[in-house]
Design goal:
Elements lengths: L1 H37 L6 H8 L14 H8 L5 H13 L13 H36 L4 H15 L2 H15 L11 H31 L2 H8 L4 H19 L1 H18 L5 H10 L3 H29 L1 H9 L1
Amino acid sequence: MGPAVDVDRRLMLRYIGLRLAVTVPVLLGISVVVFAMVRFIPGDPSHAILLSMVEPGADISRLEQDLATLRADLGLDRPYPVQYAQWLSDVATGNLGTSLRSGGPVLDELLLRLPATLELAAAAFAVMVVVAVPTGIVGAAHHGTAADRLARLLALVGVSVPGFLLGLLLMYGFSARLGWLPTFGRGTPAHLVLPAVTLGLGLAAGVSRLLRAALLDALSQPYIVTAEAKGLRWRAVLLRHALRNALLPVLTNTGLVVGGLLGGAVIVETVFSWPGVGRYIVDAIASRDYPVIQAFVLAMSVLYVVVNLAVDIAYRFADPRVRVEGVRA
């Protein structure tokens, strides 16, 4: 037992080392793609900054001569390879750049808005678990019945309805018509309900369908027949034996769930005027704020890679079959 554990530990450390080594070129490739794509966005950020300096309807012809000076001050007149090398060297030292719109450090502005996004993501994750787990279990335990068809119908609706449309419908029903919940902003727990439900329900639909399929597969395995032959109650067989194994595919899907939380937060924060990172990025895209867009995508890429690495490691601890195959290899 001891040598096997040592071999498995060495294989785990080697696996983590290889994944971390592969992460470096992946992040470099992502940085190149992001750097190129944001510069394909139509419009000139320096021109947008100049327009923000004048009153609406004012004569802007005199400001056009300052455009070249402003581009030089922002470093936008340099060749793209030089801009990329400068940005990459700044990132390596922990400097994510300076916002073209506000003139403040991008890292400070992201950290200022990050708590609001984390609060929304945590609440949405809780909604997802509360909705997805019961509906997935009910659909698998009562396969082919009316309860199963209802659970599948709700999951299909949740997958099909876009997040912004669901948010507008909830806003109209619970805010405009009933007046139970606030519509915009952040401040009280009531402000969190509609954004969290909007984001959580969209993710719950996919997780519920995955859990139902995994449970149905687990319930068809021979060990379920053995557990029933031992006289265990059906509830114990379902929750203690089948559900534990069915959660493994759901655990693997955690990386995609995190991506859905981050991507969905951009839309939900915009709809509900939630002062988080997502809304900040939407404003940055509208104003062609290159450093903010690049820093956000790079930070989300790092987070996504780290979460998927953590999921892979957790899977090896959760499933003994993975450890045994690793030791034999």
